[in-house]
Amino acid sequence: MTYTAVDIAKYIVSYCSGKHRPVSNLKLQKMLYYTWIDYYKKTGTALFFNEICAWQLGPVVPDAYYEFCSYAGTPIIRTYDVELSSGDTAIINKIIEDYIPIPASTLVNRSHRKGGPWDTVYQDGLGNRGIIPFSLIKDMECVGTC
Which domain of life is it from (predicted)? Predict the structure, then answer.
């Protein structure tokens, strides 16, 4: 099943709030990116089709960013009623659990990997806010696993 990025973002926010490990919008953006990748690796299908863009602090899904930008750098403590299929819930919960303990700064650094999708599009700022094609993400992040 395919969802919107905002639905997945709300699910991540709710899950993390429920675990008393709320995330900032920055960390949420990185978790969305890596959730998309890990979900694709596991299922071979896209979790959402909203654009992922190369912003200064890494990959960002603008639709989800603007949904939560009023929180700035503060933890987002909210719960939403987002329904996922039972199979997707299990997959996504596991992915979230893997990323909850990782600091946002570590995820930013990981997403800025030289030669990775973000770096390829961002190009030291020349491609700021450019779209990172899903094909590029698949080719560079899912090599040998998808």
Answer: Bacteria
Please write down the HEC assignment for all residues of 48-116. ECCCCEEECCEEECHHHHHHHHHHCCCCECCCCCCCCCHHHHHHHHHHHHHHCCCCHHHHHHHHCCCCC
Could you give the CA distance from residue 21 to residue 15 in angstroms, rounded to a whole number?
Answer: 9
Provide the 3-class DSSP secondary structure of residue 23. strand
Q: Residue 46 carries which DSSP code?
A: -
Does the pLDDT value for residue 7 go beyond 70? Answer: yes
The rounded distance, in Å, linking the Cα atoms of 71 and 94 is 25
Q: Residue 32, Cβ neighbours under 10 Å: how many?
A: 24
53-55/58-60 β-pairing = antiparallel
Q: Which two tokens stand for residue 146?
A: 């998808």
**pTM given for the model:** 0.95
Q: Kindly indicate the confidence band of residue 1, based on its pLDDT and cuts at 50, 70 and 90.
A: confident
Domain boundaries, the chain: 5-141
Average pLDDT over residues 116-121: 97
